[in-house]
Amino acid sequence: MAYHLIKEDGEEERKSGDIESALHKINNNNNNNSSFAAPLNVAGCVNSTSSARLVSLDVFRGLTVVLMIIVDDAGGVLPSINHSPWNGLTLADFVMPFFLFMVGVSLGLVYKNMSCRASASRKAIFRAAKLLVLGLFLQGGYFHGINNLTYGVNMEHIRWMGILQRIGAAYYVAAMCEIWLRNDEKVRSGPSLIKKYQWHWIMVFLLTFIYLVLSYAIYVPDWDYRIPNDLSSEAKIYTVKCGVRGDTGPACNAAGMIDRMILGVKHLYRKPIYARTKQCSNNSPDYGPLPPNAPSWCQAPFDPEGCLSTLMAIITCLIGLQYGHIIAHFKDHKRRLLLWLVPSSSLIVVGWLCDIFGMHINKALYSFSYMCVTTGVAGILLAAIYLVVDVYGYRRLTVVLQRMGMHALLIYILVACNILPLVLQGFYWKNPSNNITNFDWNRKTDALRKAEDFDLIRQVFFML
Length: 464
Description:
The structure is a single chain. The protein is mainly alpha-helical. 51% of the residues lie in helices and 6% in strands. The chain has helices spanning 19-26, 55-74, 95-110, 117-139, 163-180, 190-196, 198-217, 254-262, 307-329, 333-356, 368-391, 399-406, 408-416, 419-425, 441-449, 454-463; strands at residues 4-7, 40-42, 45-51, 219-220, 223-228, 235-240, 244-245. The strands form three sheets. It has a three-stranded antiparallel beta sheet, with no helix packed on it. Helix 2 crosses helix 12, helix 2 packs parallel to helix 13 and helix 9 runs parallel beside helix 11 (368-391). The longest helix has 24 residues, at 333-356. The radius of gyration is 25 Å and the shape is globular. The two termini are 43 Å apart.
């Protein structure tokens, strides 16, 4: 996604908050990383635009893509880096907040200046809709998965929520806030920055208040769900005993109840993360067979990208938006770093204190403490990458990450959504199991070791 840093006509010489001149100074040693676009006329709205890329943001996104690939591929082998079964924080739990945070940062650059809010709103709605539709197609169950060369989805069981849907919702809310909820305050200091975007912070506090009230004040009654029986046409019914208020465990939390009411239990994610807890798996923290006395909720559907938890995901995006404002309104490197590091450190401290006092860090629920810690870490990591890449100019070592960051969505679709493995499996020899993804490398390696010329090959290899 290109980050268009938009300036209005007549603002070429304005000194305060000119993002183009700031990025020009940053990128004076690497002009190939910036591109400039001609003025655009959209729906009768004239913009004088220039386009540039903040290299550190692309590198950050590329690093997150690498992290996503690592935890997806190695998570099954090393369950300790996979998503936490319930409470707690692992390496994989940082991926989603990092992406949401970067969406917010980029929005702070895209919508710095606008001459037509209606046109900007239409574009934002269209982009959010594309993410929602793409998410439904890729994560709604249309593709039946690895080793299953079939497709199609039963609308009675389609999954409505997902990662791309959550990013689309967060993008839409943050974009609407940026387009419509800001005033004409001149930004000269940190307090004036907060005053200019005070309605953004009001939205943050309002969404946080709604999330906390719904999470801890709603009464969760007993509920049941059905699992089809492979041996018969009848489904087995499980009853989960709750009758509590303010519970944040796997079975009786308000987030799950809201999703069952709004989305329907048939439309939730069918491989719940809490199936890896000790109560539900003999191989915890990995998936495994059920223990003899496993609770009734162990096989119940639960969506980690549900309705209530998406409120906190939106807040991550809105906070990232404020970090983007710092880039847009302040040119000095030290000031930017200070305005990033202080709130980031504060968020981490607040998050850990909440966890200590009982509001546990939980990715599945996207708890308040989880939002604080992961957003704070994202802010510190952005500051570190910005210092190395955009201030000191060490870019040769990060060029691969930068390129990956520029095509993050495509990589996500091909790798994380299993599109590439499914395509490779579609080409096979005589039998569907004879494809490149099922190639038995161990067996072929053993055969090679038995070859007569293997010793010669090994000698040549070590000589090289």
